[in-house]
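Structure first, sequence second, as always.
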C-alpha cells in the first residue's frame, strides 16, 4: 500500500506560513512593506501582547482594487511582478505573493481597503485562510489589516513564541529599521496603547534618528555622503562617545533593504578600531 500522499491545501498553507511568519514581528514587517509598496506616506501600527493577540497596520496608500481583494490572499498572487524576467530588476520590497496567504493561514484576519476610484471600501474577514465575509463598507483611501490570535490553529508554533515583552521588542526593532530606511514616511507604533515610535515623515534621516534614539544621539552623529561611479553611500555615523557593546544601533541598508553583512560590519569595525575601547561598537545609520 502506498504511504506517500499529497497534502491538502490547508496543511500546505500552514506549513508554508512557518517559512514567512515566524513570529509577530514578521507579520508586522510584511504588512508594513506592503504599505510602503502601495505608496503610503503615513503608516500606523498597533500591537497588543507583543503582537501575539493583536496586530493592526493601517496606511494611506493606494488601496487594493475590489476585484483583487480575494485573490490577494491566494499564495503566489502579487501585483509586483508578472514574469520571471522582472526578477532581476525588482524595485518593490515584496514580490513573492506569499505574505497575506501565509498570515491568513495561521490567524484571524480582517482587511478593509479602498482605492480612490471607488466611493466605498471592501471588507474581508478570514479565519485560518478561509473567507468568512466580504462586503462593502465605508473607509478612507488606503488599507487596514488587523491580525488576531496568531498561530491559534498551530499550537506547535505558538509554544515557541516568547514573552509578550520580548515579542514586542522584536516588533519595535524591525519597525525602527523600516523607519530609518524610509524617512519620507511617517511611521507610528503603539504597544498596548502606548506610543513607542513616531517618526515625522519629513524625508530627513537625522530627524528620524532623533525621533527613535533621542536628541543625545542626534547631536553625536556625523553625516556620511560619498559617491563614485559604482556606489553611493549616505547616512550618519556616531561619534565614539555613543559607542555601544552591541550592534543594536547599527542599521545598514542596501537599496533600501535592511541587511546584516559581516563583510560590511567588519569594515566598519576596522575603520573605528583605533578610536574605540575594546568590545565597543560604533553607531551607524546608512
Amino acid at each position: 500500500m502506498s504511504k506517500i500522499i499529497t497534502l491538502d491545501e490547508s496543511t500546505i498553507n500552514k506549513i508554508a506560513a512557518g517559512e514567512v511568519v515566524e513570529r509577530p514581528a514578521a507579520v508586522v514587517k510584511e504588512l508594513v512593506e506592503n504599505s510602503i509598496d502601495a505608496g503610503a506616506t503615513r503608516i500606523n501600527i498597533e500591537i497588543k501582547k507583543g503582537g501575539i493577540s493583536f496586530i493592526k497596520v493601517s496606511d494611506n496608500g493606494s488601496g487594493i482594487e475590489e476585484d483583487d481583494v480575494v485573490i490577494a490572499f491566494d499564495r503566489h498572487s502579487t501585483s509586483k511582478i508578472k514574469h520571471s524576467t522582472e526578477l532581476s530588476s525588482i524595485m518593490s520590497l515584496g514580490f513573492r505573493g506569499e505574505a497575506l496567504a501565509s498570515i491568513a493561514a495561521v490567524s484571524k484576519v480582517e482587511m478593509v481597503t479602498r482605492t480612490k476610484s471607488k466611493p466605498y471600501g471592501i471588507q474581508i474577514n478570514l479565519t485560518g485562510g478561509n473567507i468568512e465575509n466580504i462586503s462593502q463598507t465605508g473607509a478612507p483611501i488606503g488599507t487596514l489589516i488587523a491580525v488576531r490570535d496568531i498561530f491559534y490553529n498551530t499550537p506547535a508554533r505558538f509554544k515557541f513564541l516568547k514573552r509578550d515583552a520580548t515579542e514586542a521588542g522584536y516588533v519595535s526593532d524591525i519597525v525602527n529599521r523600516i523607519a530609518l530606511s524610509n524617512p519620507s514616511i511617517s511611521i507610528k507604533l503603539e504597544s498596548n496603547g502606548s506610543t513607542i515610535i513616531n517618526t515625522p515623515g519629513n524625508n530627513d534621516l537625522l530627524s528620524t534618528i532623533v525621533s527613535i534614539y533621542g536628541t543625545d544621539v542626534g547631536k553625536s552623529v556625523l553625516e556620511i555622503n560619498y559617491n563614485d561611479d559604482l556606489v553611493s553611500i549616505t547616512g550618519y555615523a556616531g561619534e565614539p562617545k555613543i559607542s555601544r557593546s552591541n550592534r543594536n544601533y547599527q542599521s545598514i541598508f542596501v537599496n533600501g533593504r535592511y541587511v546584516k553583512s559581516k563583510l560590511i560590519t567588519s569594515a566598519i569595525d576596522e575603520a573605528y578600531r583605533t578610536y574605540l575601547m575594546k568590545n565597543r561598537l560604533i553607531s551607524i545609520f546608512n
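Margin note: Residues 80-84 have pLDDT under 50 and may be disordered.
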